[in-house]
Design goal:
It is a single chain. The chain is of the alpha+beta class and 461 residues long. The chain folds into four domains: 89 residues, Uridine Diphospho-n-acetylenolpyruvylglucosamine Reductase, domain 2, CATH 3.30.43.10; 121 residues, Uridine Diphospho-n-acetylenolpyruvylglucosamine Reductase, domain 3, CATH 3.30.465.10; 96 residues, Alpha-Beta Plaits (2-Layer Sandwich); 95 residues, Alpha-Beta Plaits, CATH 3.30.70.2740. It has 16 helices and 18 strands. It has a seven-stranded antiparallel beta sheet with strand order 15-12-14-13-17-18-16, sandwiched between helices. It has a five-stranded antiparallel beta sheet with strand order 5-6-10-8-9. Strands 1-2-4-3 form a four-stranded mixed beta sheet, with helices on one face. The mean pLDDT is 96. It binds flavin-adenine dinucleotide (FAD). Flavin-adenine dinucleotide binds next to strand 3, helix 5, strand 10 and helix 12.
Length: 461
């Protein structure tokens, strides 16, 4: 598809659709919207617009579609696979000014939000009502970006990923038509499930302008433990044991020793530098949680864990969780001269021990700084591989390691990305992972966006 470059008339007409200070072609704004948090190459858009309503988005898309101008949604730009990079230029719609909580219906456990609110601000506002939106990618992501990437996090093992919390969406389609999908009922078997088509579509099918989210009550009590193991593989086996036992953990995070070492240095945690599981359970009473933790201890001891340290106080638990959430930033801070490839794959839980052992072996032999960690309870691993910016040899090394880990995950009936999305980096695996259904994805894309103006160059190989 040949897209149109913006000329002065386009700029003037687009600017007139919003307030003048919400349209920019300034260099610093174009640069700010040219890269996410990934290692992928930057591409500048030709203009950035900050819409404040669905009607504005609708008018902009109608115009862009008529003139074949690419449009890419932008939340907070924290993606790790180049998802919001406007590789075909055109317009970026930045949702940071469309960031309001529209209505909270606490008795129904629901909230209506605009897409630009970030989940941390949302949870801060909900806390005093005893409610929260559980998916927590760690970075300050927006709800729109989380919906587009189907983000998840440390709590997903118990509470699900973003897709499990979206009840209703208002979406502007490529031609400017605004549609509503979903229901406020907690279940439905009415018609095709468009919600789950749009969640995870990375802004390639439509632009989300409003969402109704299902919330969860804040847990009454928690119980947390730190467990160390002789190897990541054995830790992976304990993860499998805990999941199989039906104990329903609220967090099962695995950290290879290099991550523990870094967190110790940055946060003074004083943890043993060994393969480590951070384990947490939520429940109604301390007594019930003590029983659950005892079973978890038995499972970990059967796997010959080095140490099982339960009964962490709130302060220590919060400190550990904060350090875990900040791990990505610590990695970057500790290697200022390097670019980070933060890749993720996920496999069925039975395959997790073998995958994590393989990933660890690969990274130890790589000869570049590398870190292995993951949301183990979801069978999800993250590998951060660091390379010098202009070093071709290191680039080939990390691409090789990443490729072999993805191939391994796919060979185990897993997925090339558990939560970061396809973006640019995982397009090449779409055919292997999806086979003929990829052709049907392309047909769906053509139905919703026949001119291909929405986030072009993403998802499809
Ligand atoms: C340190 C660090 C840790 C991370 N950890 C995790 C993790 O644990 N789990 C996880 O899932 N992710 C993680 N991520 C990745 C990232 O935070 C998530 O992918 C997040 O969902 C991106 O949200 P965002 O608001 O930054 O969106 P962006 O990066 O701005 O955009 C993401 C996608 O959404 C599209 N988009 C944005 N707004 C809209 C809209 N209104 N309508 C339609 N499409 C839209 C964009 O075009 C793009 O395709 C991490 C990132 C970092 C930097």
């Amino acid at each position: 598809m040949e897209f149109t470059r913006l000329n002065e008339t386009h700029k003037k007409e687009l600017k007139s659709m919003v307030a003048p200070d919400r349209f920019s072609t300034g260099d610093s704004n174009l640069d700010l919207h040219s890269r996410d948090q990934s290692h992928h190459e930057a591409f500048r858009p030709e203009a950035v617009i900050w819409p404040v309503s669905g009607d504005e988005v609708s008018a902009i898309l109608k115009y862009a579609n008529q003139h074949l101008i690419p449009v890419t949604g932008w939340g907070a730009g924290t993606s790790l696979e180049g998802n919001p990079i406007p590789i075909k230029a055109g317009l970026v719609l930045d949702f940071s000014q469309m960031n309001h909580i529209l209505s909270v219906r606490e008795e129904d456990f629901q909230v209506d939000v605009e897409p630009g609110i970030d989940y941390k601000t949302l949870n801060e506002a909900l806390r005093h009502k005893g409610l929260f939106f559980p998916p927590d990618p760690g970075a300050s992501a927006t709800i729109g970006g989380m919906i587009a990437n189907n983000a998840s996090g440390t709590r997903t093992v118990r509470y699900g990923s973003t897709k499990d919390h979206v009840l209703r969406l208002s979406v502007v389609l490529a031609d400017g038509e605004m549609i509503e999908m979903g229901t406020r009922a907690s279940k439905t078997s009415s018609g095709y499930d468009l919600i789950h088509l749009f969640v995870g579509s990375e802004g390639t099918l439509g632009i989300v302008v409003q969402a109704t989210l299902h919330l969860t009550g804040l847990p009454e009590e928690f119980s947390a433990a730190v467990v160390t193991f002789p190897s990541v593989e054995v830790a992976g086996k304990a993860v499998f044991g805990i999941i199989r036992s039906g104990l329903d953990p609220a967090m099962l995070e695995l950290l290879a020793p290099e991550c523990v070492d870094l967190m110790n240095r940055e946060k003074g945690l004083g943890l043993d530098v060994s393969p480590t599981l951070l384990v947490e359970f939520h429940g109604p009473t301390k007594t019930q949680l003590a029983d659950v933790m005892e079973i978890a201890r038995e499972i970990c001891q059967e796997e010959d864990c080095f140490e099982f340290r339960p009964a962490l106080g709130r302060e220590e638990r919060d400190q550990l969780l904060k350090a875990r959430h900040e791990l990505g930033e610590m990695l970057r801070r500790n290697h200022p001269d390097r670019l980070t490839m933060a890749m993720d794959v996920a496999v069925p839980i039975t395959a997790y021990p073998e995958l994590i052992a393989m990933a660890r072996k690969e990274t130890r032999n790589a000869g570049v700084p590398a870190y292995v960690f993951g949301h183990a309870g979801d069978g999800n691993i993250h590998v951060a591989l660091m390379r010098k910016a202009e070093d071709q040899r290191e680039t080939e090394i990390i691409e090789g390691v990443s490729h072999r880990i993805v191939e391994k995950a796919l060979s185990m009936d897993g997925t090339a990305t558990g939560e970061h999305g396809v973006g640019i980096g995982k397009r090449k695996y779409m055919e292997t992972e999806h086979g003929r259904s990829l052709e049907w994805m392309k047909k769906i894309k053509a139905v919703f966006d026949p001119n291909g103006i929405l986030n072009p160059g993403k998802v499809f190989p």
